[in-house]
Write a structure and sequence with these properties.
It contains 6 helices and 19 strands. The chain has 415 residues and is mainly β. The longest helix is centred in the N-terminal third of the chain and has 13 residues, at 2-14. 11% of the residues lie in helices and 55% in strands. α1 (2-14) crosses α6 (296-307). A 14-stranded antiparallel beta barrel has the order 1-3-4-6-7-8-9-12-13-14-15-16-17-19.
């Protein structure tokens, strides 16, 4: 029993970030899937997710938006001669927003999925070889042959925006984030030997500014504080629990919106996530040999136990995301859109978690906005993310993945 309990603890930390369809989900609603850049959105309720200060440019009234995104993925990694795959789809990634605009002010409520939203399922009757470094020395007769993990963040915000002049407006909001993670490891046909669940929550905030030097140009900047969600991890097999935490990075989001004509809008965005660059404890953690060969989670656990600190992985760097998109009104009832994005990799190869690696990627999105009436619209979007292959553990592990996304939302002016 002690060995199985230890196995659960080690495996949980080694795949702690597993189960994310997107490590950090920039697509808070379908408008991003069809354009890849919404940081300077104005004149539309979906600005609430990316550029809430842009709500002051809307017509007076009350608006509601509801939407959902779906994802199909294929995760692949190779360990020596064995190949492991996961293609578990995600059907529900909802978003909801309520906006009220009057004169120079706007207030809003919104909910979306800022990260996670997916499930991983790995099965191999001969054992999952990539778990070898995690279970070595535990005395198990066979490698575990089944791993399932799921995670999601739900974030809601409440705030307001105000325009001081035609060219200057500001926004601020309070956010609350809830995190849920569940992981099970076992043997195909024989059940699980370890099952744990983490629940956590935290408050955070954001503030931004928009400058409109001319009618055809808007420039925005928004900063969102780090989310440090604290809660409890429970071992569902042994019924033990301990205090735990999960994080979303603070970030800076900059956007530019250019309207060369009344029917064309071009948007560019840049997001800098301040992830992995801080050491919450020793800047030169101990047990470096274990950290260099095993996956990032094990190193974190080892150094935390030895130093007593709250240490983030030192083998990381800040994450950058850029996007460019265009929207063309081809008819009074129809807009067509197209976008392109690129995201860097914030995790060094030797610190990757092969079950859910963080890889640099290129995204291509397209879609449409249908406006059958002045007070109602439908957004439909789709995107394909292509990831770059990475290697770790002296080339013994090779990792790649691909993601397809589909989304739809309904927006109505109700007052």
């Amino acid at each position: 029993m002690k060995k199985l309990f230890a196995l659960g603890s080690v495996l949980l930390t080694s795949v702690f970030m597993a189960g994310s369809l997107y490590a950090y989900n920039y697509s808070h609603d379908p408008s991003f899937a069809r354009m890849m850049a919404r940081a300077a959105t104005i004149d539309a309720p979906d600005a609430v997710y990316y550029n809430a200060v842009g709500l002051v440019k809307m017509d007076d009234g009350m608006y509601i938006e509801i939407g959902n995104q779906m994802g199909a993925k294929r995760y692949m990694h190779k360990f020596i001669a064995a190949n492991y795959h996961d293609a578990t789809p995600s059907y529900i990634m909802p978003n909801l927003a309520l906006v009220w605009k009057k004169d120079k002010a706007a207030i809003f409520l919104e909910m979306h999925i800022p990260a996670g939203g997916g499930t991983l399922m790995y099965r191999n009757i001969f054992g999952i070889g990539t778990l070898l470094t995690e279970v070595a020395g535990l005395g198990l007769p066979l490698l575990p042959s089944k791993l399932k993990a799921s995670s999601f963040w739900i974030q809601g915000s409440m705030g307001g925006s105000f325009a001081f002049t035609e060219w200057l407006a500001v926004t601020g909001c309070v956010k609350y984030s809830m995190y849920s993670y569940e992981m099970a490891v076992g043997y195909v046909g024989l059940g699980t030997i370890s099952k744990e669940k983490t629940s956590a929550g935290a408050f955070s905030g954001a503030g931004g500014i928009m400058i409109t030097p001319m009618k055809e140009l808007s420039i925005t900047a928004l900063y969102s504080t780090e989310v440090i969600a604290r809660g409890t991890t429970r071992d569902l097999k042994t019924h033990y629990s301990h205090i735990d935490e999960a994080r979303l990075p603070d970030y800076l989001l900059i956007g530019i919106n250019i309207k060369p004509t009344e029917t064309l809008s071009i948007q560019a965005s840049y997001q800098l996530n301040f992830s992995n660059q801080k050491n919450y404890g020793a800047s030169t953690p101990t047990a470096s040999l274990v950290r260099d060969f095993a996956y990032a989670g094990v190193g974190l656990t080892t150094s935390t136990l030895i130093t007593g600190g709250n240490t983030q992985d030192y083998k990381g760097r800040m994450n950058h995301k850029v996007g460019l998109g265009g929207e063309l009104k081809v008819h009074k009832m129809l807009m067509l859109s197209l976008g392109l994005s690129y995201e860097t990799q914030d995790c060094y190869p030797r610190a990757q978690i092969p079950f859910d690696p963080e890889l640099k990627n290129i995204g291509v999105g397209l879609g449409m906005k249908i406006m059958p009436t002045d007070n109602f619209s439908i957004q439909i979007g789709g995107a394909k993310y292509t990831y770059f292959t990475d290697h770790m553990m002296l080339g013994l592990v090779k990792m790649n993945k691909s993601v397809w996304q589909g989304a739809i939302s309904l927006t109505a002016k109700v007052m």
